[in-house]
């Protein structure tokens, strides 16, 4: 009986390790590729921000980068750096170095501040510490859908329980669809706010299994 239990535990551990390895490999390969592709746009965006910054702030990075403390894997904090612009989602793309470095994943729970993390309580904190926060995630693509269960904390918890490569790819595809379409068309709908992390919804995806 003990041997059977040990075998089950080992099997679960192997599966978990395999999932994490696949996920990290996807982060490294796809994250590095996206960073290379986005590098020219990020360079132009940073240059535009630097030129628009007040004279006294030029030459420094305070006018170009926004720096925020976030809680990552294992409960460790890190400084999240992003461009101070949402045009063509350059703010999110500028976080790709964090994905390559392993502080973020392409897909995962929203990166929280230490205060937000503490407010969730010990139970939520434990499962969050086992996952890297994401560049995008289920909560970001499903929030504001009007469904009663589509609260960010619940969606993050659901992702933590059911995450896998298929779901990650679906979230990434949907996260990219609307900004790319808007960039190609060059449209800005009258009376609508700029696209944000919470404007993307994954159609047909339900928390019910």
**Low-pLDDT stretches:** 189-209
Task: Please list the strands of the largest sheet in the order they lie side by side.
Answer: 1-2
Shape: globular
Q: Based on helices, strands and strand pairing, what is the structural class?
A: mainly alpha
In whole angstroms, how far apart are the ends?
31 Å
Q: Gyration radius, to the nearest Å?
A: 19 Å
DSSP helix fraction: 40-55%
Number of helices: 8
Number of strands: 4
How would you characterize the largest beta sheet? 2 strands, antiparallel
H/E element string?
Answer: HEEHHEHHEHHH
Beta-strand portion reads: 5-15%
- Average pLDDT score: 76
List the helices and strands and how they pair.
Blueprint: H1 2-52, E1 65-71, E2 77-83, H2 90-93, H3 96-101, E3 105-107, H4 114-120, H5 122-129, E4 134-136, H6 138-142, H7 152-162, H8 165-185
Parallel strand pairs: 3-4
Antiparallel strand pairs: 1-2
Give an account of the 3D structure:
Belongs to the bacterial sugar transferase family. This is Sugar transferase. InterPro entries: Bact_transf (IPR003362). Residues 86-177 form the Bacterial sugar transferase domain. This protein has helices at residues 2-52, 90-93, 96-101, 114-120, 122-129, 138-142, 152-162, 165-185, and strands at 65-71, 77-83, 105-107, 134-136. By secondary structure, it is mainly alpha-helical. Strands 1-2 form a two-stranded antiparallel sheet. The radius of gyration is 19 Å and the shape is globular.
